[in-house]
Every structure is written in structure tokens, then in C-alpha cells.
């Protein structure tokens, strides 16, 4: 049996390819270790997950602080390929052992060629003789695939080598520089400062723009305009001088402008409005941005549409449709979409030749639709992108639009004004492409010499504007112009800058760290921040693709460049490190400490602890607690509190909405206000006074000393002492409450649609805020609060164990003994006082004297009598008595003594049912014993 294996770039494309090529033959899906394959006839398709191997340094370079392998050593370090998708690699090799033909059908670009080459190497490693060919296509559609699979070629090793060179160079630049800068600035863990070959010059552009904006000095200028009217319509005309850079000439012109307004010239003309050129990646991203899609999102959706056969491959530099593109066929296909009317309009009004852009390349055609889709099928967002691509395609086939233009000159007292109008006389491509606005200004007809009224003359003062910050799409355009990155990587680079917190906002602004790193590098190693070096490398990639240079040769040259950069860097290591540290420390500063006028800053400690502390610590201990970092990493925002002049704080967490704390001091005051009012000796006036003395929490009051507090708050020492001890008890209460909350959180299983807050509020209403209350609550009450029956029983039992454990510990029972009591089922303090110590000793296995000591402790604490201790003699005598009763043997005596029953009197006086539960002896048996004892006693009395 023969097998033809087709290797696609992703699972979804493997499935699509199989669906199309099987042409209705039976298609079976197999799953092997979670990886799907699709088979029909003798063909099997399998999808990779993009790269299934990763390039990394050979072992020995993981320690950042190693003396032998300093960051610079990474430049010359050898690299190896490590499988990252082990299951896929294993399956690919298993299948290729059996295959007699393998076709690589990964995406058709440098990255795809490299992914294909990685698969090639994995296959060759297990099967040296299998035929391996390559299918290239720009759209996952029947025509394209049939053509590609019947015209397979060889893998393009030169193209793959260019991709490999880029990988190696990016790894070595990124790793060596990131390590160097992070170590110099003493940053590690999640705080490292990443530097990259394309990333850093891109960041440099954003920082440069920000600096231009900062140094920009706005200039005033004046604009003169007038309003007139014709046929009931208001018409605005502007002074032909344009901008006046000084006020007085503008004012003179204004004052000279007099009625009547005379038409001196009427110029009408026509303007051709060319239909737009086909989409390449960059123009597509720009157009999608106008619809509100970020670059990364636009690319993700486009890839999705490609994989599903609705549009062609979206990573392309081409803006000219190749002659081979079947435009007629495409029109017929998309005629079945909801845009039937537009398609038919274009079919009837085709321009002779489609429009073309400036860039022409041979790899992929411009982005165009390949299949018909509906809104129901795609969902709103994806459908909007599909519509954009489809309409753009239609627009490139539609005729140009024609405008009628009109320019009128007016004279008013010797001053000349002009009004312009534009009217769309032939809508052309605008009919099918509503995404670029065609603003019409329709003017009524004018005749030379005509007099018009002068309604209003206005002089406006304006200011020149600074250059605009980059939007994502503008930045991508600029990167393309400068040769930074590729069509496939540009949007990823920007996303990386955002995720590394080097830039923020929309349009993009550098953060303090982004700026510190860039400026420091600019000053001390400018070849890393300038685009020139990266452009050179891109040019080298091109040479590899054209087989003019080898990969090794290019990497060697890149190593040399990086060594030069390191010469600069190492010479300035201390300066760079200090520089970055000094500048970035500021990013955590919030403002002035209210207590000592030092600086408040967010501090992050190991183990997720974060708080706001004072720069004058330990002299000033003022601090504000923050939630643990797993609730969000605390950062400063630009907003500032009007009252406290502190920057706002925000907690940010990946994949979650940010949590805005606001002004940390306002937050601190509000969260503590309620607990402060719980202090009995607190009143309004005192509350105000403590705030002005910068005391915000109960804890601070409780920690104060009598003298200092008396002095600070101007109180008598006794009053101060009362306040301190009141605060102490409130603090203890708060501690117990938070303990209770934590207990509930730890013991209730998180469940959808149930909130702890709700349960806690319900319990609070029922008066339960502490563990002691919870331990004494009943199941019904917990159920009322929203906890299920079984869970309530469990929570109660747990609460009892925990709470009584605390009480017993407080009484003085050592933790080790406590454990033994608990595992013997003795959890409440009362249990210590209602049974003889012997039984406790037997049940726990602890010595009678130890147990006796504990029992005395507990019962004294509870103010209950200590159960009697029995002497050996008493015990022996009791045994004899008991053995004399019919049915009682040594085992029974053993059981009874554990329950504190050591003689017939005890047994007679005990409650049979309770004793049964405690001993495991059946109640009716105990009742029989009791009857026997009674009978014996009766007999004894008679005998007397
Ligand atoms: Zn302070
Ligand atoms: Zn505030």
C-alpha cells in the first residue's frame, strides 16, 4: 500500500486541504496523541503548529550571572534546534516512515518555507529515501490547490536559509543585548529589559516622535474668512492670503473687507479620482485600522479568513494582480455572497485594466477574496473585514470617479476671498467602496460681476500643531518605508512593545522605561537604536534568498556588527546601568509622603507582596498596603489626586480588566474609615484630628505610645491610653473578622454564579463575622446564606475544629497534643470536662499525667469542675464489680472505661443511648446491664 503524506502549516489548513482535494470522497479523521490527521484514498494530511522546533543556544548558557558565559559570549554561542511540539514531531516522523511521497504544503512565504524545511529535516532523519516535494498556493481554494498539487516543485532552500538566518540573528541579538542591559540595570525576573533587533529601532522611532512633540513650540497664526449667502444657502469663503503669521495685518485686512462682495472669477474644472490600488499587507492594515481594528487583530482575522478559504494569503508585498489571477472566476464566486448587487454592478461597469500599485512581487497576489461568505457564517467582526477585502477588490476593478470642481473668487473692499466646491458627477468606484469618504461641497452657480451680501467676517486665532503620535497602522507604514521588519513581523513587533510596557496608549506613547532604555542606548550604543543596521541585515536576507550570499556568511557579518555594538556597550556598562536605574525608579514614584515629605513609591517584593512605602524608611514608617500581586501588578497612572497630589494606582493583570485603586491615599482613608468608627472613644472631631496628624488606621493607633499620642492629638495621657487600648481591641476584632473571611474563602469551593461577597454579607446580617460565631452556627443558617446542605455540614465541622483548636491552643494545649486530641475526635473544650481523664488518655494514647494536666487547664479556664481521677484501687474494685454482672467481659470493660465508666454505679447512672453512641455497645444491651445491676442491688438490700 502506498501513502502520500501532505504536511500543512496548521491543523485547520490540513483539514481544509483534505476537504478540497478529496472531492467528495470519504474523508476520515484520526486522532493520535491529540493530533489529527485526515485521510482519503492513499492521501493523508497532517497539520503542524507553525514551527514545531525552536532554535536555542546549546546547553551551558542558561545562567545569566555566569562568569564564564557573559552576555557577549552569546554572540558566538552555537545554536541547536529543540522540538517544541513533541507530539506533532513524533507523529510526523511515524507517518513519514511509512510514506513514499511527502508534499510540504506550508504557507508560501519565507516563514512557511522555513517551517517546511524544519519538517523536511525531521522527515529525512527517519526516512532517507522518501520523495519530498513542495506545493505552493496563495489561497486555499479548489483551483489554487489543484494547480499547486499537480505542479509541485522542490523546497526553496535559499528562501528557507534566509528565514533561518533571521532566526539566528534575532536570537543572538535579542538574547545578548537583553541580558546585557538587564544585568547592567540590575533587573531580573519579569522585570527584564528586552532589546531586539527590530524592536529597539521601532521603539526609537516612537521615542523620537515623543521628543519632537515635547520640544515643539506652537506658533500662533490667524485665519480670515467671511460668510455670504446665495439661494438661501450659507457659503464660507477664505481670504486668499492664507495664514497670517501676525495679528495686525490680519486685522487690517478684516477691517478693510467691505460689502458689497463682487464675484471676480468663476473657474470650473474636472478632477479624476482614481480607483484605489489592490491591498498589500500594509495598506490592508491601514484600512482595517480606520474600521477600528488593531494591527495584530486585523492580521489575526485575515489569517483566519485565509485558512477558511475566504480570502487569499494576507502576508504580501504585492500590489499588482498577476496575469494568471482569474478575476472573472473570483467575481463569479463572490457573486454568491450578500454583495451580489455590487459584484454585478462591477461586472457591468468594469474598467479595462484593474488598478495597480507601485510594488510588484512574484510570491503572492495582492489580498483578494476567494470565497463567498455571509455574516451568519463569520460573525460581525470577521464579516466586516471580509467585506473590506471584497469591496476593495471590487473597487480595483471599478471605473475612476469624476468630480466637478468650482473655484470662485470674491472681492470685498479690495480684499480677495475664495470658495471652492466639489461635486461627484460620476461616483465610479465609490459606488462599491464606502470606506473612503467622498465629501461633496456643492456650490450654487455664480456669474462674474454678481453682487452678494456680506453676512459676517471672522478672524480666528489658531496655533500650529505638534506632529501626531504614531498610530499602529502609521507606524507599520513607516517601518515598511525604513525597511524595518517584514510584512509578517511588523505587527508582532508592535504588540511586543506594548506587552513589554515600553509603549502604551493609542496613538502610541513611550513609557518611562521605554524611554529610559532607548535614550540610554542612543547615548552609549547608538547602532542598536538606529534603523540602519537592521536595514543592512534585511538587505542581506534578500541576498540569501537570491542565492547571492550564504546564510553562514551573513550570520558571520552580523556577529561582527554585534561585537562592535558590545565594544561600545561594555565600555559604558556602569553608566548605562546607573542611567536606566535612575530614570526608571521614577516610574514607581507617586508623589510626596504626607507624613515626612519624603517620596512615596510602589514597592514590589518577592512573593507577590506589594505596597506603597516612603523613601525615608526606616525613619518614616508610613505605608499603604495593596492587594497581593496575583490580583494585579500595581503600576502608576497619569492621573493625579486633586487633594493629595499623588498619582493614581492601577492593578493590571494579564487577561483581566484592570483594577483602578485611584488615589492611594483616598483609597487608604476610605477603606479604613469604617473600622476607625468602631473605636468606642472615637468621635467626629477626633477622627478629623487623627487624619490631620496622618494617622489613618486602627493599627497605627494601637501601636502608638501613650505620651506621643497624647502630644500629637493634644489629649490627656489617660484619654490617649484609653484610645490606644480601644484601638487594640478593635484591631483584634478586625483580625478575627478577616480570619473568618479567609476561612470561608479557603473552605468554599469556587462555583459559577456564587459570590463570596454575597455569602459573607448574608452571614454578617445573621451576626456571624467571626470564627467563634461560625463554629456555633447551625446548618440551617448557613443554608440560608446560600451554602448547600452537604457543604454546610462540612464547613461547620471544619469551623468547629479550627475554632476550638484556637481556643485550646490559647488555653495552653501544645500543638502536638492538640493534633492527637483532634484525631481522636475530641475537638471541643467541653469534651475535656465531661469525661474522666482516663478515657481521654486511652483514646489519645497520651500518658494519664499529661492528659490530667491538660484537663485541669481546660476545666479551670471554663470554670468547670475537674473530672475526678480514679485511683488504681478504685479501678480494680470497679472491674471486679462489673465482671460480676452477667454478660460483661473484659472487652466490654475496656469499651466502657474509654467512656469513663469504671464501676457499676457509673454504669447505672449513665444514659444508655448516649453511652451506646460513645462505646459502640448496643443500647438495649446496656439497658440489660443496668437492669442486672439494679436487681443485684435490690437483692443486696433485701439481704440486709
Ligand atoms: Zn514618609
Ligand atoms: Zn487623594
> What class, by secondary structure content?
alpha+beta
| Overall radius of gyration | 42 Å
Bound molecules: zinc ion
Q: Please, what is the average pLDDT?
A: 88
What's the number of extended β-strand segments? 24
* Portion in beta strands: 15-25%
Low-confidence blocks of residues = none
Shape: extended
Distance between the termini: 109 Å
- Helical residues, percent: 40-55%
Largest sheet, spatial ordering of strands: 14-11-12-13-10-9-15
Q: What's the total helix number?
A: 38
Biggest β-sheet, characterized? 7 strands, antiparallel
Description:
The chain contains 38 helices and 24 strands. Strands 14-11-12-13-10-9-15 form a 7-stranded antiparallel beta sheet, covered by helices on one side. Strand 12 (401-412) and strand 13 (415-426) form a beta hairpin. The N and C termini lie far apart (109 Å). One zinc ion is lined by residues 593, 595-596, 598, 614, 616, 620, 622.
In short:
By secondary structure, this protein is α+β, with helices and mostly antiparallel strands.
Amino acid at each position: 500500500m502506498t501513502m502520500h503524506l501532505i504536511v500543512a502549516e496548521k491543523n485547520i489548513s490540513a483539514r481544509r486541504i483534505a476537504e478540497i482535494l478529496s472531492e467528495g470522497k470519504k474523508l476520515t479523521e484520526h486522532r493520535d496523541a491529540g493530533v489529527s490527521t485526515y485521510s482519503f484514498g492513499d492521501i493523508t494530511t497532517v497539520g503542524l503548529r507553525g514551527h514545531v522546533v525552536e532554535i536555542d543556544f546549546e546547553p551551558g548558557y542558561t545562567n545569566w550571572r555566569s562568569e564564564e558565559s557573559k552576555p557577549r559570549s552569546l554572540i558566538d554561542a552555537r545554536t541547536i534546534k529543540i522540538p517544541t511540539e513533541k507530539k506533532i514531531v513524533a507523529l510526523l516522523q511515524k507517518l513519514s516512515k511509512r510514506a513514499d511521497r511527502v508534499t510540504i504544503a506550508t504557507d508560501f512565504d519565507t516563514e512557511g518555507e522555513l517551517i517546511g524545511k524544519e519538517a523536511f529535516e525531521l522527515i529525512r532523519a527517519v526516512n532517507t529515501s522518501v520523495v519530498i516535494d513542495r506545493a505552493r498556493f496563495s489561497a486555499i481554494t479548489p483551483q489554487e490547490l489543484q494547480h499547486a498539487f499537480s505542479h509541485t516543485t522542490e523546497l526553496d532552500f535559499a528562501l528557507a536559509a534566509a528565514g533561518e538566518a533571521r532566526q539566528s540573528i534575532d536570537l543572538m541579538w535579542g538574547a545578548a543585548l537583553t541580558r546585557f542591559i538587564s544585568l547592567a540595570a540590575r533587573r531580573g525576573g519579569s522585570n527584564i529589559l528586552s532589546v531586539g533587533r527590530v524592536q529597539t529601532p521601532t521603539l526609537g522611532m516612537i521615542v523620537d516622535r515623543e521628543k519632537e512633540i515635547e520640544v515643539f513650540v506652537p506658533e500662533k497664526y490667524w485665519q480670515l474668512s467671511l460668510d455670504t449667502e446665495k439661494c438661501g444657502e450659507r457659503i464660507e469663503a477664505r481670504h486668499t492670503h492664507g495664514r497670517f503669521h501676525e495679528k495686525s495685518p490680519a486685522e487690517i485686512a478684516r477691517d478693510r473687507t467691505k460689502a458689497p462682495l463682487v464675484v471676480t472669477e468663476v473657474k470650473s474644472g474636472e478632477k479624476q479620482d482614481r480607483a484605489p490600488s489592490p491591498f498589500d499587507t500594509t495598506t490592508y492594515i491601514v484600512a482595517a485600522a480606520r474600521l477600528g481594528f488593531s494591527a495584530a487583530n486585523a492580521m489575526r482575522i485575515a489569517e483566519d479568513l485565509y485558512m477558511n478559504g475566504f480570502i487569499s494569503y494576507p502576508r504580501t508585498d504585492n500590489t499588482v494582480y498577476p496575469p494568471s489571477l482569474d478575476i472573472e472566476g473570483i467575481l463569479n464566486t463572490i457573486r454568491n455572497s450578500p454583495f451580489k448587487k455590487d459584484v454585478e454592478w462591477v461586472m457591468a461597469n468594469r474598467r479595462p485594466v484593474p488598478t495597480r500599485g507601485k510594488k510588484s512581487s512574484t510570491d503572492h497576489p495582492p489580498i483578494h477574496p476567494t470565497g463567498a461568505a455571509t455574516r451568519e457564517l463569520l460573525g460581525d467582526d470577521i464579516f466586516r473585514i471580509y467585506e473590506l477585502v471584497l469591496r476593495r477588490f471590487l473597487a480595483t476593478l471599478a471605473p475612476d470617479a469624476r468630480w466637478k470642481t468650482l473655484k470662485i473668487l470674491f472681492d470685498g473692499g479690495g480684499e480677495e476671498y475664495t470658495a471652492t466646491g466639489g461635486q461627484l458627477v460620476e461616483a465610479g468606484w465609490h459606488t462599491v467602496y464606502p470606506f473612503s469618504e467622498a465629501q461633496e461641497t456643492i456650490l450654487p452657480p455664480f456669474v462674474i460681476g454678481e453682487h452678494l451680501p456680506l453676512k459676517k467676517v471672522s478672524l480666528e486665532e489658531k496655533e500650529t500643531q505638534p506632529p501626531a503620535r504614531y498610530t499602529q497602522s502609521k507606524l507599520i507604514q513607516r517601518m515598511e518605508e525604513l525597511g524595518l521588519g517584514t510584512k509578517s513581523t511588523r505587527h508582532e513587533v508592535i504588540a511586543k512593545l506594548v506587552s513589554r510596557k515600553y509603549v502604551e496608549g493609542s496613538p502610541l506613547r513611550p513609557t518611562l522605561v521605554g524611554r529610559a532604555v532607548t535614550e540610554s542606548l542612543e547615548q552609549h550604543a547608538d547602532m542598536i537604536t538606529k534603523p540602519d543596521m537592521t536595514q543592512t541585515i534585511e538587505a542581506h536576507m534578500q541576498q540569501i534568498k537570491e542565492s547571492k550570499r550564504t546564510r553562514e556568511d551573513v550570520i558571520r557579518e552580523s556577529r561582527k556588527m554585534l561585537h562592535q555594538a558590545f565594544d561600545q556597550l561594555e565600555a559604558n556598562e556602569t553608566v548605562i546601568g546607573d542611567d536606566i536605574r535612575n530614570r526608571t525608579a521614577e516610574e514607581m514614584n507617586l508623589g510626596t509622603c504626607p507624613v515626612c515629605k519624603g517620596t512615596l513609591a510602589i514597592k514590589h517584593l518577592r512573593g507577590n507582596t506589594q505596597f506603597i512605602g516612603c523613601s525615608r524608611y526606616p525613619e518614616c514608617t508610613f505605608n499603604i498596603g495593596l492587594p497581593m500581586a496575583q490580583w494585579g501588578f500595581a503600576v502608576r497612572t497619569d492621573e493625579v489626586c486633586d487633594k493629595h497630589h499623588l498619582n493614581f494606582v492601577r492593578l493590571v493583570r494579564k487577561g483581566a480588566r484592570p483594577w483602578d485603586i485611584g488615589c492611594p491615599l483616598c483609597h487608604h482613608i476610605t477603606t479604613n474609615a469604617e473600622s476607625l468608627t468602631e473605636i468606642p472613644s472615637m468621635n467626629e472631631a477626633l477622627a478629623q484630628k487623627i487624619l490631620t496628624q496622618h494617622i489613618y488606621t486602627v493599627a497605627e493607633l494601637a501601636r502608638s505610645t501613650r505620651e506621643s499620642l497624647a502630644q500629637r492629638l493634644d489629649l490627656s495621657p489617660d484619654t490617649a491610653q484609653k484610645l490606644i487600648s480601644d484601638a487594640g481591641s478593635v484591631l483584634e476584632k478586625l483580625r478575627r473578622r478577616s480570619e473568618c473571611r479567609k476561612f470561608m474563602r479557603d473552605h468554599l469551593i469556587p462555583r459559577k454564579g456564587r459570590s463570596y461577597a454575597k455569602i459573607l454579607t448574608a452571614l454578617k446580617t445573621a451576626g456571624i463575622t467571626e470564627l467563634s460565631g461560625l463554629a456555633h452556627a447551625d446548618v440551617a443558617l448557613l443554608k440560608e446564606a446560600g451554602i448547600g446542605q452537604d457543604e454546610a455540614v462540612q464547613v461547620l465541622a471544619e469551623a468547629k475544629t479550627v475554632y476550638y483548636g484556637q481556643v485550646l491552643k490559647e488555653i495552653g494545649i501544645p500543638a502536638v497534643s492538640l493534633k492527637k486530641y483532634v484525631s481522636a475526635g475530641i475537638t471541643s473544650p467541653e469534651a475535656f470536662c465531661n469525661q474522666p481523664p482516663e478515657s481521654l488518655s486511652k483514646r489519645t494514647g497520651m500518658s494519664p499525667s499529661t492528659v490530667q494536666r491538660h484537663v485541669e487547664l481546660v476545666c479551670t479556664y471554663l470554670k468547670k469542675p475537674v473530672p475526678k481521677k480514679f485511683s488504681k484501687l478504685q479501678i480494680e474494685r470497679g472491674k471486679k464489680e462489673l465482671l460480676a454482672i452477667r454478660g460483661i467481659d473484659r472487652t466490654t470493660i475496656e469499651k466502657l472505661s474509654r467512656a469513663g465508666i469504671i464501676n457499676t454505679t457509673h454504669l447505672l447512672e449513665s444514659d444508655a443511648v448516649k453511652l451506646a453512641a460513645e462505646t459502640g455497645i448496643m443500647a438495649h444491651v446496656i439497658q440489660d446491664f443496668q437492669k442486672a445491676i439494679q436487681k443485684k442491688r435490690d437483692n443486696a438490700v433485701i439481704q440486709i
